[in-house]
Amino acid sequence: MKKSKRQRPNRRPRKSLRKSRHKSPREGSGKSPKSRGKASPDRLAKLAQLERIIARCGGGIVAFSGGVDSTFLLSAASRVLGTNLLAVTVAFPAVPAAEIRSAKAIARALKVKHLVVRADDVMGMERFRANPPDRCYHCKKAILSKLLAIAQALGFPCILEASNKDDVADYRPGHRAVRELGVKSPLIEAGLTKVDIRALSRECGLPTWNKPSAACLASRIPYGEAITREKLARIERGEAYLASLGFTSCRLRHHGDVARIEVPEGEMARLLEAGLKSKIARRMKTLGFRYVTIDIEGYRSGSMNEALGKSGRRADR
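Now predict its structure.
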């Protein structure tokens, strides 16, 4: 007599293992704020426009510094383009080593292919070393040309860079190189400001949403004064020391043997505390500065451009 088969309780059908392991382009690339419902309709509309602009590329390279804007752009591009995307970070003495390490960590977290390329030859360019007012144009053109060569070699149709709408009104000679080389600026096209980008970055869960603005270390040296590796290293070490003391939004301007420190006005009282002030002065002097000063106007982005005046800034637009 045959034994009756044991009845098994009803179970929910198992998902295909292959399907459960499949990752769509949106996974691992930061949350979309659309699912959270907290972003304003205006910002969501700008985000949708950004994604349409990126989608038209079909694939591309993102010029990735690890800052607020480029991280937001890379996150959006990874959701839209999936694996048909490469982040490229350029390393040379004007970029702090800490920023390169941060860019690597962010790219890993976003699960995006990442390449770090050296651009030490920029230091050998006379139009960079001489530090004219249009220095950024020559530097950016050399760097973006490297990215274009990589894109052509790997078959990527687009280069995406992360200037935002606010940058259009500022003195940005490097943007001329962007236009000349046909590099896309999707954040500008979508009308995204820095405030928009920080707000959407926070909704997406990106760690850079409140990261202080950063700029090339060469921007700490007055126009017309030669840029050297030694000066850049001195600035990098000095700003790293100030950051270690909690002054994250700061600039160390290099005026020969004078160090001019800029911090936000709200942090100036702490900077002037007797014990801390003396400690900072001693550290700056060990770096090679003879005099250490505090700018009473406080931190402001692009303060070296104040020497150009309005006519000098218009000349490059």
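The chain has two domains: 38-204, 217-314.
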